Structure formats: structure tokens, C-alpha cells
Automatic annotation (TrEMBL):
Domain of life: Eukaryota
Origin species: Culex pipiens pipiens
Protein name: VWFD domain-containing protein
Taxonomic lineage from the root: Eukaryota, Metazoa, Ecdysozoa, Arthropoda, Hexapoda
InterPro entries: VWF_type-D
Domain annotation VWFD: ranges: 225-373
Length: 373
């Protein structure tokens, strides 16, 4: 069976977005593969990761039409431990420079003694659930599922004749906080494995991976008065250190000091907000007089934007833009600067981070620069 050409595209789920994969049919009919999927990422303390949809493949003579069968319907999700909400609510690290609120940022601003391991019980995935339903599969696929059924039935501790994997496949993987064991249940048959794989949702988040592997990044992180520079130095900010980088009622955290600056991040005194220069515009978020339900952003002292359920970008209504600002699923203020690839995160209180491609590091000045020792 010959495929002429295949095209696969998978988009992040937003309401009813659909991802499809197609092959272009030749004149006499061709095999087409179609994938429909809805995707929702895990949001800390709010919802689990989920991926649902179905895969269909068959020969078709109708252009741009997906076959109905054979079909594989899938539903996959993973989640954090059930105790996370209660544990988070009572957690007190006792360290103002390592508060639990850093977990709202992605990736969190871990540094020094404030490491990912400190919060591992809150961010390590403890369970995965996956279900697959098979409809009218070709004989070669059924034979493979038969072999899988025999293999799993043979290793399940209790004696079973068949697990009916040729019809459906339900997999549940569970780990517990108190031991290093993993329980894998396949269609009701449980296999115990004396080891576990720890997946830290915050530490290995796709956003961090895309930054690390798409281009090497450096971080500036400010947690209350603890600053981590682009050169991985940890500094306790004092009024004397801030003095050299003051501008009115702000101090300069980091800025592009090249001949054509593209970014500057100022923090307002006494943790009162943040001011960001980008693309010839000033974006200001002040904590004073803010309501949690209506977070207001000031653009150039000319425009007030309510960020609740809104993404502001400049220029507006353009596919190619200089920057955009929004609140993510964890209510963190995010500014994405397309001019130099920087991403600024601000928890709207006292925690901020800047992710920047390494190629721009030598152009930066401010408290993050090499002048601080």
C-alpha cells in the first residue's frame, strides 16, 4: 500500500480545536490517516493533563474526507497526588526567599538552597490513566493485540485466560509517596514493579524543554530580595545595591543595553509592581488599587487593559507582533517579547523571572550584569 504524501499537524486544544493528519489521495484512491485530538495541559492545583480523541485510517476515494473506521479512540490523563491541595495550603517553608508561591511560575525560579527537590512531593506525577477502544481493526493489528494479551496475561500474578485487549485497553499506573513501587493495572490485571519513574511536572514542563532545546536560555530570577543573575550568582539585594540602578521609584532588574534596545525590566519599589519596556512601549502593572477579578495593565499611560480572559498584543491584529501580554492558567502575568525571544513572568506580588536566549546575555545590563559580585 503506497502513501503518496502525508501531512501531520497537532495544535494545542482551545475549546473545539481539532488536529488532523491527512495523506493526499491519488486518482485511484489512497490511504488516509486522520487524527482528531483535544489537549489540555496540567495546571498546578487546578486540573490534570488530558489528551482525548481518535485515530482513523483507511482507503478513501473522496478528497478531504476522513474514513470512519478502522478507529482507535483514546483518553489519556495524568495527575498529581490527591493530597497536593491540602499539603500546599498548610505548607510554610520558613524561608522568604523560597516561598511556595514560586510553584505558580513555569518553570519555577529554583536556585541555591531553594531546589526542585524541596517541592517534589507537590509536583511529582503520581498517576496515569489511559484507555483505548479498538473498532474494526485490520487482521494484522488484531494479531499484534492478541500477542500483547497473551504476554500480559502470562505475567499477571493471578491466573487469567484473557484480558480482552483486542477490544479495549485500559491502563492505570499508580505510585505512592511512601515507597518506590509502581502498580500497573491493565484491563483489571495488576502488575507490581519494584521501581518508579519520577516525572516532575514543574521541572520537566514542555515550556522549559522548548526553551532548553530550542535555544539555550539564561534566567534572571527575583524572589523577594534574592536575585539570581544571568551568571548564576545569588545576591541578597540591599538598598545600596539598588541605588546604582534606580530610576525614579523603580530599580532596573535587567535591560538590553545594545545600540537598539529591545527590552528593559524595572521593579517598582517596595514590591509595588513591574514596568517593562519593549518594542517602544511601556507596560506597567501596579499592585495598588488592583482587584483580583479585574487585573489592569497600563500601556504607555494611554490605555488600560483588563487582562482577565484577554491577550493583549502589539501591534494588534497582526500575525507578526513585537510582544504580547496575558495571564496564564495560574494567573501569572506573562510577557512574550518576540523581538529578542525573552519571556518575563511576574506573580503580581514579589516574584519575577526573565528567560532570555544566551546570545543576548552579553548585551544585558542592570542588576543582572557582571558588575555585581
Amino acid at each position: 500500500m503506497k502513501f503518496q504524501r502525508s501531512l501531520l499537524s497537532l495544535h494545542r486544544h482551545s475549546n473545539d480545536e481539532v488536529a488532523r493528519a491527512n495523506t493526499q489521495p491519488p486518482r485511484g484512491g489512497a490511504t488516509r490517516l486522520c487524527l482528531f485530538a483535544d489537549y489540555e495541559p496540567l495546571v498546578f492545583l487546578k486540573r490534570p493533563f488530558s489528551l482525548t480523541g481518535h485515530l482513523a485510517f483507511n482507503e478513501t476515494r473522496v478528497p478531504k474526507r476522513c474514513p470512519d473506521s478502522p478507529r482507535i479512540t483514546f483518553n489519556v490523563s495524568y495527575h498529581l497526588p490527591k493530597y497536593v491541595h491540602d499539603f500546599y495550603n498548610i505548607l510554610d517553608t520558613g524561608d522568604a526567599n523560597c516561598p511556595k508561591e514560586i510553584l505558580r511560575l513555569t518553570p519555577p525560579p529554583f536556585s541555591g538552597n531553594c531546589s526542585a527537590e524541596t517541592f517534589a512531593p507537590l509536583t511529582t506525577v503520581s498517576g496515569l490513566d489511559a484507555s483505548f477502544k479498538f473498532e474494526k481493526l485490520p487482521s494484522w493489528s488484531v494479531n499484534l493485540l492478541h500477542r500483547l494479551d497473551h504476554l500480559v496475561s502470562a505475567v499477571v500474578p493471578r491466573r487469567v485466560q484473557t484480558l480482552n485487549i483486542t477490544d479495549h485497553l485500559d491502563v492505570h499506573i499508580k505510585t505512592t509517596r511512601w515507597n518506590s513501587d509502581t502498580d500497573i493495572t491493565i484491563n483489571g490485571g495488576t502488575i507490581w514493579i519494584p521501581t518508579r519513574y519520577n516525572y516532575n511536572e514543574k521541572l520537566h514542563h514542555p515550556k522549559k524543554n522548548s526553551i532548553d532545546y530550542g535555544f539555550t536560555s539564561k534566567y534572571v530570577q527575583l524572589v523577594n530580595n534574592k536575585l539570581t543573575t544571568f551568571h548564576d550568582r545569588i545576591i541578597q539585594l540591599t538598598p545600596e545595591l539598588r541605588q546604582d540602578f534606580r530610576a525614579n521609584d523603580t530599580f532596573l532588574l535587567a535591560a538590553d543595553c545594545s545600540d537598539s534596545p529591545k527590552l528593559a525590566v524595572f521593579m517598582l519599589d517596595n514590591a509595588k509592581g513591574i514596568q517593562i519596556y519593549t518594542g517602544g512601549n511601556y507596560v506597567v502593572y501596579e499592585i495598588a488599587n488592583q482587584q483580583e477579578t479585574d487585573p489592569i495593565l497600563n500601556i504607555n499611560d494611554e490605555q488600560l487593559i483588563n487582562l482577565r480572559n484577554v491577550v493583549y498584543q502589539y501591534p494588534p491584529d497582526e500575525e507578526i507582533y513585537d510582544f504580547r501580554v496575558y495571564l496564564d492558567d495560574e494567573d501569572v502575568l506573562i510577557l512574550e517579547n518576540q523581538l529578542n525571544g525573552a519571556v518575563v513572568q511576574y506573580d503580581r506580588k514579589s516574584i519575577a523571572s526573565i528567560l532570555l536566549p544566551t546570545v543576548h546575555k552579553g548585551r544585558m545590563c542592570g542588576l543582572c550584569s557582571t558588575r555585581i559580585h
